[in-house]
Amino acid sequence: MNEIQNKAWNLLTEKEKQALTLGLGYAKSSWEVGEMMGLSHYKFLELKERAERFFKLFEGYFSKYPSLVRPNSLDDRFRDFIEGIIEKRMSRKEVSQYMGDSSLLVKPISTAMIIKWYKGLISSSDTWDKDLALLITEVDRWSNKRFLPRDIQLPSAYLRRIKWKDQSYMRWLIKWPIQKIEAIKKIYTNRAKEGYFIAISDPSNDMGYCVLQVKKNRRTILEMTSLGLYIFPELVQADVLGYMISKYSEKANSPKSGMRFWRDYRDNLKMAMNYNDLQNLSILPRPEDIEFSRIKKIREKRKEK
Prior knowledge:
two-stranded antiparallel ribbon, 15 helices, 4% strand
């Protein structure tokens, strides 16, 4: 590498460097390199794409300018901010600690400060400052830690999957206290000829889950949605979800099996009658806070009527 390429290379994270070198040095496929790095295939491809983009971006920038920031052009706080964000690749919170400036932890204050600094670069008469502003925008666009305020940031360079949301939901299901699970069984199990079906984690069951038949009506769908539980028209669909709950720890963490696991999980979930409602739910209820005794009383009152 020449001096310019070395400067660009030094701004990459260790994982980005690995993503670029492992495939070439070991003649491995992207699947194999992803497994070596402990990443799912799509996550590795995202990392490699970002590394390639950043290397070209920094190389092009340093071919025009000898350093990241024009000498004597910025106040010290903005210079430290850029050093933390681009050179050290920190998050906004980490940069605040690095700078020793707690005001950056207050979002309205940090947002106003960053916008002011950024606009100062854009309005500068020096092309070096303007190009730095473009570099900052592009780094933010490709970063997995967005740092620019929404008012001045561009859309992400790629569409990320919502795997984090799926993982969060699965962990939420598994953490249900046993007394709450037993309460669901007692209140909602229905043995009529027809019904809808739900799956819940169940440590007391040898399979690690159980499928319950519940009443086939609109009220039950609404109640399941309020509890954060998917409800299915067919037994087999609920059983598939239950099986995936029981196999989550085993199947979801390996890159190859994990990719198939989450694809099958999403495909099955789409069959739920309250799929759209739960997908739009940003906060799930805490199982320990759900008052099943209150739900039971309400249901008993409805029966009396």
